[in-house]
Amino acid sequence: MRELAFKTSRFLRHQGQFHVGDRVVTYNQCKGIVVRVDIDESGEFIVVRLDIPYAEFAYDLDELKVIQ
Predict the structure, then answer these.
(1) pLDDT value at position 2?
(2) Residue 35 maps to which CATH number?
(3) Edge-to-edge strand list for the sheet holding 64-66
(4) Is the pTM of this model over 0.90?
């Protein structure tokens, strides 16, 4: 039960922070665009298509920052 509460509170904390189409920068300074926001058994993750050709990766919420 504790694990479920933690995942729920983490989801609510970041809910709405990332949206499809947002420009983001990763923890290692690569720029890209959000193509999907999803949830699996490990929690919420963001799929980003990087500006380099044919590169798409999944990131944890704490590894991304929205570019203004």
Answers:
(1) 42
(2) 2.30.30.30
(3) 56-59, 43-50, 31-40, 23-26, 64-66
(4) no
